[in-house]
Amino acid sequence: MGSPLQQRVVLGFTAVHLGAIVATLWVLMLNGIVGFQLIDDGTPISLGLILLSAAALFIGTGYIALDTAFKYSGHFNSSMDDPNRNVGLYVLYQLAPLVFLVGFFILETILVLNVLGEKKPMLYLLASALLFAIGQIFQYVISTHICSGTNGKINGALFESLFTLLAVVMTWVFWSSITEDDWPMPVAGGTYT
Fold first, then answer.
1. Mean of the per-residue pLDDT values for the chain?
2. Which residue, 64, 52, 70, is CA-closest to 9?
3. What SS3 class is residue 133?
4. Angle at which helices 96-110 and 120-137 pack, to 10 degrees?
5. Which residues contact 14 (CB under 8 A, 6 or more apart)?
């Protein structure tokens, strides 16, 4: 059946999607660095560095994806031939976000265990990592079996999205458990003040 949108629109949305993934995980890793207070968080310099670097990654990844899809410069034309390999997109879409994500978890583990001396928030962080890993298993391993079993009607993207959403929620719960501010929703049986 295919997509109801024109192929060019799908390719454009895909480029935006890839850029957003890279930029979002970059910002997540930078937020892991912010916890060490190398630069005061919330200052114009820290916000500017985060936003400008994320914008650069978003635009760069988006450009490479658009150039690959629409053959603007001709540099990535060979990636459209078999075996359809674009090393630039692979590094930006698969490897860089993985490095950023692992970096975030390492930074937060050091922050929580060594700097804050806490152990309970690590349960939330580990739950987040586990949920994310389950989502990736659905995306890269189980999806083909679901797609084959339903004759292409659905795939593992639904479950991948669900588990990724749950991982994001657990990351928020983790973050909320290590901050000192009062939030409208207590995480661990706290009371409103």
1. 88
2. 70
3. helix
4. 160
5. 65, 69
pLDDT digits 0-9 by tens, 68-120: 888 888 777 777 667 777 788 888 888 999 999 999 999 999 999 999 899 99
Neighbours of 99 (CB within 10 A): 14
- What is the C-alpha separation between 92 and 50, in angstroms, rounded? 18
Task: Report residue 23 as tokens.
Answer: 């930029």
pTM for this prediction: 0.82
Backbone angles phi, psi at 151, to 5 degrees: 55, 40
Tokens of 59: 């635009």
Residue 187 near residue 125 (C-beta atoms within 8 A): no
Tokens of 41: 């968080």
Q: What is the pLDDT of residues 16-45, one digit of tens each?
A: 999 999 999 999 999 999 988 888 888 899
How far CA 6 is from CA of 79, 80, 126, in Å, comes to: 21, 19, 41
Conformation bin of residue 21: beta by default, left when phi > 0, alpha when psi is -120 to 50: alpha
